[in-house]
Amino acid sequence: MADNAKSPRPVYRNIHVTDLVSYRLPPAGIVSILHRISGVVMFVLLPFVIWMFDTSVTSEISYDAFTSLFVAGCGFVPGWFFKLVALGLIWSYLHHFCAGLRHLAMDFNHDAVTKKSGHNTAVAVLAISVLLTLVLGAKLFGLF
Fold first, then answer.
1. 107-115 contacts: CB < 8 A, separation 24 or more?
2. Is 132 exposed, middle or buried (0-12, 13-18, 19+ CB in 10 A)?
3. Does the pLDDT of residue 1 top 60, yes or no?
4. What is the chain's alpha carbon radius of gyration, rounded to the nearest angstrom?
């Protein structure tokens, strides 16, 4: 009788605040949270994006002012800070785009969604978005 008895199933409860330090989120969870964060970052920085676009296409003089902002800064704000904000915007767009493609692919083929494929695609999204951000960040900061 004891051999046929099933072991009790684990009980999952809400995570307490003290458990947050030791809790290990899977890559798919990290991608999901970063997808939401990147969407918020793009929404919050939308006025900056609109200003950048407007300033860069209005005239040659405004384009020169736009490019000098990233070099000389504006007032007490140094130029590297504007580059850092632009880099954050670049990361948020690239991550949001890659994670969105991942979600579309999962929605397109429900039968192929497994725990392993979810893990692999989440790691791929993280790697691709970070690598593309590093390449564009190197260009932004003048490394090539």
1. none
2. middle
3. no
4. 22
Q: What is the spatial distance between Cα 34 and Cα 15, in angstroms, rounded to a whole number?
A: 20
Contact 41, 97 (CB under 8 A): no
What pLDDT, in 10s, does the model give residues 65-79? 889 989 998 889 999
Through-space distance between the first and last CA atoms of the chain, rounded to whole angstroms: 72
Q: What angle do CA 60, 66, 72 make, to 5 degrees?
A: 125
Buried b (16+ CB within 10 A) or exposed e, 3-13: eeeeeeeeeee
For helices 27-44 and 79-108, what crossing angle results, to 10°? 130
Q: At what angle do helices 79-108 and 46-58 cross, to 10 degrees?
A: 110
DSSP assignment letter at 17? G
Quick one: tokens of 73? 């800064």
pLDDT tens, residue by residue, 36-58: 999 999 999 999 899 889 999 99
DSSP H helices, 1-144, are 27-44, 46-58, 60-72, 79-108, 115-140
